[in-house]
Amino acid sequence: MGILGNDRNPHKEVKLFQFTQGIEVDRRLYLQEIRVQTEWARGLMEMGILTSDEFKKVCDGLEVATELIESGKFEWKVTDEDIHMNLERFITEKYGDLGKKMHLGRSRNDLIATTLKLYVSDSLEKASHRLQNTISALVNLAERDLDVLIPGMTHVQHGQPIRLAQFYLAHAAALARDVAEFERLAERTLYEMPLGSGALSGTPLKINLEKIAEHLGFHSPALNSYDQVGNRDEIIQALASFSLTAIHVSRLSEDLIYYSSTAVGLFKLPQDYSTGSSMMPNKRNPDVPELSRAKMTHVMGAHNEATLLMKALPTAYASDLHELKSVFMRAESELTQVLEILPLFLEGLKTNESRAKQLLGQGHILATEMADELTLNQKKPFRDAYNQVAGAVELAESQGVQLHELTHSMSDPYAAAVERRTQPGGTSRAQCLKQIEILKN
Fold first, then answer.
1. Whether residue 117 is found in the same domain as residue 250
2. d(Cα 19, Cα 93) in Å, to the nearest integer?
3. Global pTM?
């Protein structure tokens, strides 16, 4: 976006600024922006372009601006277009020509690219912490329900018995991968610092970019200035990681909705985090997982929107990139809302243990155990054992009993089946405890 000349029609100029300004989005960047402005001013001071007194005034002015922004009293002007020019105008009004010196050797192109990288990195760190809260809530449920057994499912059909803890820990494990990816990307985002790239060709100033990069937490200055002013790879990568988390959160939400349904009845919805019907006094609705599932659609859509926005842009800067900020921030906001309430919902979730026992008696879920027993103890080929047990399932169906009730004499065959799964990742008590310990750390 360019700065208009003084010969423009005021009415048309305001119309144009209303269309091009990005204040509502830029406000969220103020902490990172002020960090960048401060370090550039420090570099100008070390070059002798600003005196130490002038640098102190810049810092004081930016500190006042921070306080005004946080209190909602900062005067944002759409005619300044963006946060960069609003801050420059603020310092100029406060200190005169000093504000006009701040922009030497840089462009809004390299300034916003740098500010955005810092913002994305900070957002990934915050998302990581929020995800860890959800993981902790799931791990706490796993500890609480460690000895509750339920039918594990594939294709939403009962398959084999598992600990309910295994269900919680499965979702926690998926989210733990997301945490690792968020932290990796938060660091990778700060690999190259765009500041110093100028509008596109690099700054002509002999300013110490390596030192500025170090102060801002970057690994190094830009490898190529023409690339960096238009580089938004880190936003797309962050949105891709958000999108994968959205899949994991949506699948968790779907399971919570299913297990709390009247037909299943394994979970009882938290009173404080569910609502009743406007007409039917007998029911409650799983609003948190339903809305979470819906909001994850927006997060996944943002990744697609960002890639489409970027796919045909020419090299270096174009105003289209301005739109990418709001795409990222919308996705960030949706994910934040969900990750802040989901742990609270999980903390209030109740388990119906008597219903869990009833569900174990559906679907002949010990069939695989019996086939394994025929193979291991009677040395039958597994496929022959499989076919024999399949025939026994048909017989049990015809008699209205569960498969193990035909022949099994064990008092708790489900517990025995679960405890056989002692290999890493299995559903035995010892293995679930190991998973809990790993996910806690």
1. yes
2. 25
3. 0.91
